[in-house]
């Protein structure tokens, strides 16, 4: 049991209206429905919601792969993390019962052809290539499980704030619903157009995050998504997800792509962009 890793962040309360939205994004009907207008939407709004990107068989195959990694022997390099609420009792559970305590897995795509097929689906690659203006390179892969009842929030943030990439690097994120994502079980909430403001200061509070008080009270858009749908979004668009206090699972895959050959930078250089030191800001 010594190898078990737990989230260092506890399930916490946050302002009741932090993820509240009166507007819900409507997915387009598949990647075949993506037009030049959606290219423009990605650039101006920061995200596009797409239903029916993956078949039921593709979704179930990816889930089966993740379940095998979570409960069975894992190839070296795959990271498995449980929710902090699992501490103290998960050791007594069967491997199968531990599934609803998993917070995330990382670095697994290369180990299973079913997940590779999802990450490199031709239609998706065509869109990502256009948004990057270059051949894509998958540089991060995660499964975000957000278990029923205990799945904690991911506070408002910009994904680029986590990546040691040069300033101005275009990052395309792809978030894939393996269960239906709803406002109750932790669907993504976006601040449309926020990517155009560039890097925002992040603070170590409940997580590495944008300060709650820096998030506008209006203008947020929730993005519910059917199983097999995908959100394609800019790495600088602010977004977050609330706690999953429902009894429903909300499992998702998340991939990030950059132009092939993009150099990496240092944490110090990243903090110059996204840190709060010396920027006369507080939280």
Structure in words:
This protein has 283 residues and is an alpha+beta fold. It has one domain (17-274): Jelly Rolls, CATH 2.60.120.620. Helices cover 18% and strands 22% of the residues. The chain has 5 helices and 15 strands. Strands 1-4-5-6-15-8-13-3 form an 8-stranded mixed β-sheet. Strand 10 and strand 11 form a beta hairpin. Helix 2 (56-71) crosses helix 3. It is globular, with a radius of gyration of 18 Å. The model has no long low-confidence stretch (mean pLDDT 95).
Number of helices: 5
Question: How much of the sequence is in beta strands?
Answer: 15-25%
Q: Please name the CATH architecture.
A: Sandwich
Output the CATH topology.
Jelly Rolls
Number of domains: 1
* N-to-C order of helices and strands: EEHEHEEHHEEEEEEEEEEH
Taking the sheet with the most strands, its summary is: 8 strands, mixed
Task: Tell me the distance between the termini.
Answer: 38 Å
Unreliable residue runs:
none
Instruction: State the total count of DSSP E strands.
Output: 15
Spatial ordering of strands, largest sheet: 1-4-5-6-15-8-13-3
Please state the oligomeric state of the protein chains shown: single chain
**Rough outline:** globular
Query: Percent helix among the residues?
Result: 10-25%
Radius of gyration: 18 Å
> Would you tell me the structural class of the helices and strands?
alpha+beta
Query: Can you tell me the CATH class?
Result: Mainly Beta
């Amino acid at each position: 049991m010594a190898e078990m890793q737990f989230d260092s962040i506890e399930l916490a309360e946050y302002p009741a209206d932090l993820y509240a939205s009166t507007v819900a994004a409507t997915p387009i009907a598949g990647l075949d429905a993506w037009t030049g207008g959606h290219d423009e939407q990605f650039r101006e709004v920061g995200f596009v919601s797409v239903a029916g990107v993956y078949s039921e068989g593709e979704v179930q195959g990816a889930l089966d792969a993740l379940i095998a990694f979570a409960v069975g022997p894992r190839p070296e390099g795959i990271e498995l993390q449980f929710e902090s609420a699992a501490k103290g009792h998960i050791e007594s559970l069967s491997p199968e019962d531990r599934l609803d305590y998993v917070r995330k897995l990382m670095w697994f795509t290369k180990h299973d052809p079913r997940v590779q097929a999802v990450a490199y689906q031709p239609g998706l690659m065509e869109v990502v290539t256009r948004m990057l203006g270059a051949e894509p390179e998958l540089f991060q892969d995660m499964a975000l499980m957000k278990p029923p009842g205990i799945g904690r929030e991911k506070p408002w943030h910009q994904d680029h704030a986590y990546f040691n990439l040069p300033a101005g690097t275009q990052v395309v994120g792809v978030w894939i619903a393996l269960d239906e994502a709803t406002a109750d079980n932790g669907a993504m909430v976006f601040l449309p157009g926020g990517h155009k403001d560039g890097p925002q200061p992040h603070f170590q509070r409940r997580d590495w995050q944008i300060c709650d008080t820096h998030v506008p009270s209006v203008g947020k858009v929730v993005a519910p998504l059917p199983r097999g749908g995908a959100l394609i979004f800019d790495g600088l668009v602010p977004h977050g997800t609330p706690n999953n206090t429902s009894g429903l699972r909300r499992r998702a895959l998340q991939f990030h792509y950059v132009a092939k050959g993009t150099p990496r930078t240092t944490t110090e250089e990243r903090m110059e962009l996204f840190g709060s030191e010396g920027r006369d800001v507080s939280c």
